């Protein structure tokens, strides 16, 4: 049964509440320790009745109000101006929803997108459900547009004479099937390294052969791939590469190229990679264990329980688990993680254990995206499962030196 835009916004607000409540509680306890409850009561004013309940039971309107009122004291330390604007905007949408006002398609998408952006900023897992709702809403909108265009063409089938001998562009250029069907979704053409690691997304990014068929190898991208091939084959190349571009400059796309190049598929299957292998002077490619860490998909405040029961709290714990899993499945993943389980539990940098893991499971490719988005959520104290902000600097140093 189809749901209304009002119901979509209501569901998005519920997901927003579930994602915000642990984050809000964590930030207040970090700042005010045992006095957090008293401070919360002061900030929410007339809503003191809610302060007597656990935060997970609060309405999203109270959470957003608390964030707005305490921004300078609490949340400015981990979130920026854009996130504060999102809080203000979402308060308005929640009021409209509570007063049973109608939502247009554009307003609904804006509400979903704003909720998703705020959840992304705090690395809340609920953002995946929001993205699915956005995709479904776009699909419905495009379907309606296609039906509308068909009705117009049926009502006024007017043939226009083509000047000269030029053919209409529709006969010369065949649009991609999603464009021709009206199902084009811009969001599907945004590279997502974490999604690809999970085996999800469109073929353009998920399938290695299709990815390279559609990727133009610029000189800088080609140099990076050549260096990676040489390094992982033990024939030179830089051990650490830092990608710096403007927003939308292709950092994630470059990391996807590395990820797919060492997917285990023969390089001869990839368009343009023969020139990379020739310049690198390497054949064949070694077997490489790949690790993917995406900062806005990993929450520093919520430990993750893996399929084998392993509880991972830190980036280095996630790295060790993925290395072992790539080498030998669940049993090897648990063994690799246990090498630094104490450091993961105490949120301390693993030190020389990283080098030992690289030696044992190498050659390995470690891809880290959106690290800043992850680190800016950390506190100066070690009160989060993921450790402190300073610990991230130590880990970064140990990681590069071990590589």
Written overview of the protein:
The chain is mostly helical and 403 residues long. It has three domains: 5-131, no CATH class; 192-287, no CATH class; 288-403, no CATH class. Helix content is 57%, strand content 4%. The chain contains 20 helices and four strands. It has helices at 5-32, 36-44, 48-51, 60-69, 81-98, 105-121, 127-155, 169-172, 177-180, 193-197, 203-206, 208-214, 219-232, 251-261, 273-280, 315-338, 341-346, 353-361, 371-375, 389-402, and strands at residues 289-294, 304-305, 311-312, 364-369. The protein has a two-stranded parallel sheet with strand order 1-4. Strand 2 and strand 3 form a beta hairpin. It is flat, with a radius of gyration of 25 Å. Mean pLDDT is 86; it is low at 157-162.
Question: Which descriptors would you attach to this protein?
Answer:
403 residues, mainly alpha, two-stranded parallel ribbon, 20 helices, flat
Layout: helices, strands, pairs:
Layout: H1 5-32, H2 36-44, H3 48-51, H4 60-69, H5 81-98, H6 105-121, H7 127-155, H8 169-172, H9 177-180, H10 193-197, H11 203-206, H12 208-214, H13 219-232, H14 251-261, H15 273-280, E1 289-294, E2 304-305, E3 311-312, H16 315-338, H17 341-346, H18 353-361, E4 364-369, H19 371-375, H20 389-402
Parallel strand pairs: 1-4
Antiparallel strand pairs: 2-3
Helix pairs in contact: 1-2, 1-6, 1-7, 4-5, 5-6, 6-7, 13-14, 13-15, 18-20
